[in-house]
Design a protein that fits this description.
Blueprint: H1 2-24, H2 28-41, H3 49-59, H4 66-77, H5 83-94, H6 102-115, H7 119-124, H8 128-139, H9 141-145, H10 152-174, H11 207-230, H12 232-244, H13 246-262, H14 264-268, H15 274-280, H16 289-302, H17 312-322, H18 325-334, H19 345-360, H20 364-383, H21 393-426, H22 439-450, H23 465-480, H24 505-515, H25 548-552, H26 559-567, H27 573-585, H28 588-598, H29 601-604, H30 610-620, H31 640-649, H32 653-661, H33 665-680, E1 688-689, E2 695-696, H34 698-710, H35 736-752, H36 757-761, H37 781-795, H38 806-818, E3 831-833, E4 836-837, H39 847-850, H40 855-874, H41 880-893, H42 897-911, E5 916-918, H43 931-945, E6 961-963, H44 964-973, H45 980-999, H46 1004-1015, H47 1020-1027, H48 1029-1034, H49 1036-1051, H50 1064-1068, H51 1085-1092, H52 1099-1118, H53 1124-1131, H54 1136-1139, H55 1144-1184, H56 1191-1194, H57 1199-1220, H58 1232-1248, H59 1257-1274, H60 1284-1296, H61 1300-1308, H62 1312-1327
Antiparallel strand pairs: 1-2, 3-4, 5-6
Transmembrane segments: 1153-1175, 1199-1222, 1302-1323
Region (Disordered): 826-847
Biased composition (Low complexity): 828-846
Length: 1328
């Protein structure tokens, strides 16, 4: 109480001093000195918060006199009172009364101009935090902005923002514009209840002068707003508000745009125009991130030669296509038929395009064009590919016309959703709103128009030329005035088509975009889009052909119509939904016809509705229980003929790839498991007759479903086949449990995710899962038991077969069936335990009857059958031919048993317990006819690619052998006829056989290749190419050589190759095949690597080698791609200086391309885990390690060292952005905060000196500056996920490198938590 009394007496004394001085007209300076003396005597620190409150209260409004304002101004001058606090106090009093006291308002603004831009003095002055707390107590920012922070720096941002916003709203109010805002009022207390004529200002003047002063005040206010955005310090402070308070900023900007469009004061100003004000406040104006790039550029310019070694055009080709090189690599890798993905490629591609656009800083038009051209290159490479067992054309076209289009739709609709919400918010309360057209949609149109410049990429493959011509004819029909939806094209035969429709792939792309509503039919009016004339469209069609329009008009499903619909893709969702209704509620015959149609062209080439067709097929595989069903068995049994047609129809490997590309594999697996469980549990005592006359049993349906299910994961190998440390390849995760886990996750996303209206609109009403209940393996006990036994069979030798038990009886029956023609005088074949035999092999008459049992029971016995047969062959009781024939009989009896044959033989080969089989043509088939040719072609492929691997000779007169189980397996496969009926079973065995052979010692793979090349000569090139992969499986050095070639080829650094200029064309080539003189063509190194990287077991080793190769490539770039010996010779000549260096711009582009290639390889090879291991472990280890033995890395400040740091910066960001995505939409992005936080913690610790580095300081400095600069520019939202204290430590370390601008930019994007530190750094930097 005593202290309060003293303070009150002091306040009273100061007030009396002021009033007395005011009455006497004392000079303001003398008054200020007296005031200061009294405060010093009382022990009050200055500037004083209490005195500021006292003086402002004195003026407002009982002493609103000129001398009182002069006293206040003098107190501000000698720092008796804090200027910012005075401004805060005045703003809450003067602005609401500005009409009543215009002169006071004018003086307030004069004080703003004098003191609001002196923020550095605030932070360097005393009582900084106390002053800001007092300002917060006055203006209550927490209630206005909702930011619960009392940090002084945060309060500075809010204070500056509030000053500008109050002035803006006061202007709007004065000009009658505030009513036009969406809120129709200000959040600030700017309104006045006083009448305009009631002027009580203490300054002399007439009403007319007051009115004029008000106009001048309005002009002054708008100019001050402009000054806040012009001033370097305050503009940066306002940038922090824009960045970290987006909702408030958006409201502020709407008010400002309203002012710019309607304000007379702004138009009357001589210092600022509406256009200039909008430009100053534009989101495109960079106030922090732009300048942070320049310091790094200046560092590189300082060490770079001014005289380039090469003309820029040499680099242009490689760099331009190199911007989108990761897309080409991803698309080509996705085409690998041996790989099935559980997630949608469209979603992955969407994230990849967004990531590349962010890091390349391009327009959406360029991004879309890069995507389209990459997908077109994929199709064109397929045109020149050699024929093989896995057709790729439909898969490539699916990628171009469905997956790529869906990725574009995702990107365009993402903006559409944002625009819709903004438009809805802006238009609230207004009658008329104009529909917004997003910039991305406009850029899409521009990119498609520019595709016409890539004529060489637009030539359609012959198989789809008719469809391309039909798309072009559709545009001609549209321009001719005929109705496209009238069925005119549907009934037109190819003979009726105009001869010069000139349809190409662009026409198909445009149709895909039109069908998915991201483009309209105005595209038909583009110059040059329609080559022919509308008069060429025939009005009288020679003969009406049945088609989808006939179906929609109600035509019955006759045989000709079914044939037509199966061979012609549906053009709309309504057509395929109509077919679904028939498949569900039609007659049995109609259901069979509908199933045939679903698996026809509408799925294979119905690109505009392909994912819907796939989803509907999956729904058809899970038919509902009919109301009148009362049987004890599964209701699925009654649908056997219908289900079988579907299963056979989607069993080709290219169909499975289409399911995989659309991310439908988990749903397909969930639909197949109940079918396998039901039909595998059903005895083969019933059968069904098909219309074709074929008779099917439960075993047939089961085998078709089971083999299809097994193609969805690597069933022939253990789940953790390639584990190295804690790194597991993505491929090995595909197990039944994992597929169901993904399926259940997808179900949850349907239920829990917020509904995206645009995405919902393009889904069929029937596209959602028929069941919303999660599925687990426990729901399928027979399948689960088989899977457990299957894994046991792979992991260990067989045991547990007891004579007389049911399994032993089935084993005997199967052996009798397989070897019934073999007469061995009662020699036993069936084992009682592993490795022993006691049962007779004599046939029994009822063996076929005994095998009319459920398929699951047969599969349980098959491993023991195989063990007995292989043992008998090894001991000479069965000849190789008899063994092969018996295996073929087993596979014909129950095709599902092929899975066990493959997995059991693979396991036995790896165990290495069997003696070799001599491939001499007598006992086993001989590869001698072309084995030498295969060997030479493998050598040719490797040599042409630049890989040197010694000791590939098979070895003169050495006998050609294979492990006995492998010999049996390959002999079995070559007994199959190559027809559509057997393809689905060969495609089950083929990938497993290849994987097994690659892992076997040399020359197993060439032997198998030679045997298959004898059987199918047209596959010879493909088979030889596949055989070359085994070299890389056994030789890590070969992999490193191949990667080295990839880098030099992509960058055009191969000094010995005159034709190579780098880029996508050099890296991936134009397709693989024998279409060149001399037979087998050279294989592009990128294609070869993408086919062999799954054979490389040590993914961690690969990642480390890629970092090493990237650094070697940087040296090559700095040396202009010249070999070391050439470089040394050149340096000794008088031209050495000129030609021994490379320009900075060319080097930067090359380094970025090398980094994107390296990051793409890491991501594609090892997926998310490899990228995270790279960032958490590999890179920190590299920086800590000593690289001093290499003079290029030890030279202080050398160009090579700095380029290396810059390359690693790009490499790290590329890797992270590929794995996590640029935003938070992908599931992988949830792992980003942890990994990124640990990496920045490493940077902070190294900058703090807590970690000793072994690398070159120039490399480290370039890496830190480059990596953080890239994140500021390309992925600013990532910083919101990093701990603020870590960001502050990193920023502090950057200041040691004279990177204040970068440090400031980093804090500026760090969110509310870092905003205060950023604001204080802005003020500190300005004071230096």
């Amino acid at each position: 109480m005593a202290a309060e009394a003293v303070n009150q007496r002091l306040r009273d004394g100061l007030l009396e001093l002021t009033k007395a001085a005011q009455e006497r007209g004392t000079d303001p300076l003398i008054w200020a000195m007296q005031l200061s003396s009294r405060l010093n005597a009382a022990g009050v620190s200055m500037p004083s918060v209490e005195v500021a409150e006292l003086l402002v209260s004195h003026i407002c409004w009982s002493n609103n006199l000129p001398i009182a304002w002069k006293f206040l101004e003098k107190a501000l001058t000698i720092r008796v009172v804090p200027p910012m606090l005075v401004l805060a106090l005045l703003s809450s009093r003067v602005i609401p009364s500005r009409r009543r006291y215009p002169v006071a308002y004018r003086l307030y603004m004069e004080l703003i101009k004098r003191y609001a831009f002196s923020l550095p003095s605030l932070i360097n002055g005393p009582n900084y935090e106390k002053i800001m707390e007092s300002i917060h107590d006055i203006l209550r920012f927490d209630q206005i902005f909702g930011v619960q922070s009392s940090e002084a720096g945060v309060l500075v941002v809010e204070f500056i923002f509030s000053i500008v916003w109050e002035l803006l709203d006061a202007l709007l109010d004065d000009e009658g514009l505030l009513e036009l805002t969406s809120e129709k009022k200000s959040r600030w207390p700017i309104g006045s209840q006083d009448m305009d004529i009631d002027y009580l200002d203490g300054f002399e003047g007439r009403i007319e002068r007051q009115a004029a002063l008000r106009k001048i005040n309005s002009i002054m206010a708008v100019e001050i707003i402009g000054d806040f955005f012009r001033n370097k310090v305050t503009s940066r402070i306002l940038y922090l508000a824009r960045r970290n308070m987006p909702s408030h900023w958006e409201c502020f900007i709407q008010h400002l745009r309203l002012l710019a469009a309607n304000s007379s004061s702004l138009r009357n100003s001589k210092n600022i125009t509406p256009e200039a004000l909008l430009q100053l406040t534009s989101d495109t104006r960079q106030v922090l991130s732009r300048e942070c790039k320049t310091s790094l550029q200046q560092q590189f310019h300082a060490v770079t030669a001014r005289s380039p070694v090469q003309s820029p055009c040499q680099y242009h080709g490689s760099v331009r296509s190199g911007l989108w090189l990761p897309i080409d690599l991803y698309l080509e890798d996705t085409m690998d038929g041996s790989q099935v993905r559980a997630t949608s490629s469209a979603e992955t591609l969407t994230g990849l395009v967004k990531a590349l656009r962010a890091i390349n800083q391009t327009t959406w038009e360029d991004a879309f064009l890069g995507l389209w051209t990459a997908a077109l290159r994929l199709v064109q490479r397929e045109r020149n590919s050699s024929e093989g067992p896995v057709p790729r054309l439909d898969t490539c076209l699916c990628m171009l016309l469905s997956i790529t289009t869906l990725a574009v739709v995702n990107i365009v609709e993402e903006e559409g959703v944002k625009l819709s919400s903004e438009t809805e918010q802006f238009c609230t309360g207004k009658r008329n709103c104009i529909e917004s057209v997003g910039r991305r949609r406009e850029d899409l149109v521009s990119s498609l128009q520019r595709l016409d410049d890539f004529e060489g990429l637009l030539t359609p493959p012959p198989a789809v030329t008719p469809l391309a011509n039909q798309a072009a004819a559709k545009a001609m029909v549209f321009l001719s005035g005929l109705s496209v939806g009238s069925g005119h094209l549907d009934g037109m035969s190819l003979n009726d088509m105009p001869l010069n429709c000139s349809g190409n792939l662009r026409h198909l792309i445009v149709e895909a975009c039109v069908a998915r509503n991201v483009l309209d039919t105005s595209a038909y009016l583009w110059p040059g889009y329609v080559k022919g004339r509308g008069s060429q469209i025939p009005r009288n069609i020679s003969g009406q052909m049945p088609g989808w329009s006939s179906l929609m008009k109600g035509s019955p499903l006759t045989a000709p119509l079914v044939s037509a619909l199966a061979s012609t893709p549906a053009s709309s969702l309504a057509e395929i939904e109509r077919m679904y209704e028939i498949a569900v509620s039609g007659t049995d015959e109609e259901k069979i016809s509908a199933a045939t149609i679903f698996c026809g062209a509408s799925f294979g080439r119905g690109w505009n509705i392909q994912e819907h067709v796939g989803l509907l097929i999956i729904r058809l595989l899970s038919p509902a229980v009919s109301p009148d069903f009362s049987g004890s068995e599964s209701h699925l049994i009654g649908y056997a003929p219908f289900l079988n047609v579907l299963l056979v129809g989607i069993s080709p490997i290219d169909c499975i790839q289409i399911f995989s590309l659309h991310g439908l594999v988990p749903q397909l697996a969930a639909a197949l498991m109940p079918i396998c469980e039901a039909f595998g549990s059903c005895a083969a005592t019933m059968s069904w007759s098909l219309n074709t006359g074929e008779e099917i049993s439960p075993h047939v349906v089961f085998s078709n479903a089971f083999t299809l299910l097994l193609k969805l994961w690597r069933f022939d190998q253990p789940p953790l086949e390639h584990v190295m440390g804690d790194i597991t390849p993505v491929a090995s995760r595909l197990t039944p449990e994992y597929l169901l886990l993904v399926y259940n996750s997808q179900l949850a996303s349907y239920e829990n995710s917020p509904k995206n209206q645009n995405k919902t609109n393009r889904l069929s009403r029937l596209s959602y899962p028929s069941s919303r209940m999660p599925i687990f393996m426990d729901a399928f006990p027979k399948l689960k038991r088989w899977y457990i036994k299957h894994q046991e069979c792979i992991a260990s030798t067989l045991s547990g077969l007891v004579p007389g038990n049911p399994v032993h009886q089935i084993v005997e029956a199967l052996l009798n069936m397989m070897f019934r023609k073999v007469n061995r005088g009662g020699q036993p074949l069936a084992p009682t335990t592993s490795g022993s035999s006691s049962s007779s092999a004599s046939g029994t008459d009822d063996s076929s009857l005994r095998l009319k049992i459920p398929a699951w029971d047969i599969l349980e016995a098959v491993p023991f059958v195989l063990d007995a047969a292989l043992t008998a062959c090894a001991h000479g009781r069965l000849s190789p031919r008899e063994l092969t024939t018996g295996l073929k009989d087993l596979a014909d009896f129950l095709p599902a048993s092929l899975a066990t044959v493959v997995s059991y033989f693979s396991a036995e080969v790896t165990r290495g317990l069997w003696k070799p089989a001599y491939m001499n043509g007598t006992d086993w088939p001989s590869p001698a006819a072309n084995l030498s040719m295969v060997e030479q072609q493998i050598k040719k492929i490797l040599a042409a690619t630049g890989v040197n691997v010694p000791c590939l000779d098979i070895g003169g007169n050495s006998p050609v052998t294979l492990p006995l189980p492998l010999a049996a397996l390959v002999s079995l496969t070559i007994t199959y006829k190559l027809d559509r009926g057997m393809d689905r079973f060969l495609n089950l065995v083929g990938p497993a056989l290849t994987n097994l052979s690659i892992g076997c010692p040399w020359p197993c793979m060439p032997i198998i290749t030679a045997l298959w090349a004898q059987k199918v000569k047209r596959w010879s090139d493909f088979l030889v190419f596949s055989a070359s992969q085994t070299v890389f499986h056994h030789n890590n050095d070969a992999v490193v050589q191949l990667l080295r070639v990839c880098f030099t080829t992509a960058l055009g650094l191969n000094f010995y190759s005159v034709a190579s200029h780098g880029g996508v064309g050099a890296l991936l080539g134009h397709g693989f095949g024998s279409h060149f003189a001399g037979g087998l063509s050279a294989v592009a190194p990128g294609i070869l690597y993408l086919r062999v990287h799954r054979a490389v077991r040590n993914v961690v080793f690969m990642t480390e080698e890629i970092v090493t190769l990237l650094m070697l490539t940087v040296k090559d770039i700095a040396n202009s791609g010249l070999p070391a010996d050439k470089m040394e010779k050149l340096k000794k000549t008088k031209y050495g200086t000129k030609y021994g260096q490379v320009s900075l711009s060319a080097a930067m582009n090359q380094v970025k391309l090398a980094a994107s290639l390296g990051a793409s390889i890491v991501w594609i090879t090892g997926g998310l885990n490899s990228v995270q291991s790279l960032i958490k472990e590999t890179l920190p280890s590299w920086f800590i390690s000593d690289h001093g033995s290499d003079p290029n890395w030890s030279e202080p400040g050398g160009m090579v060292a700095m380029l290396g740091g810059y390359a690693l910066a790009h490499f790290t960001l590329f890797s992270g952005i590929f794995a996590w995505g640029v935003d938070g939409t992908s599931p992988a992005s949830k792992r980003r905060p942890n990994v990124l936080g640990k990496h920045l913690e490493f940077l902070a610790s190294a900058l703090d000196g807590k970690i000793s580095l072994g690398c070159n300081k120039a490399t480290w400095k370039a890496y830190v500056s480059g990596y953080l600069s890239l994140m500021v520019s390309c992925t600013p939202n990532w910083m919101l996920e990093v701990d603020v204290e870590v960001l502050k430590r990193v920023s502090k370390g950057l200041k040691q490198y004279n990177e204040e601008e970068l440090a400031l930019a980093l804090l500026g994007i760090g969110g509310i938590g870092a905003m205060g530190a950023a604001a204080e750094m802005i003020m500190e930097t300005a004071s230096c």
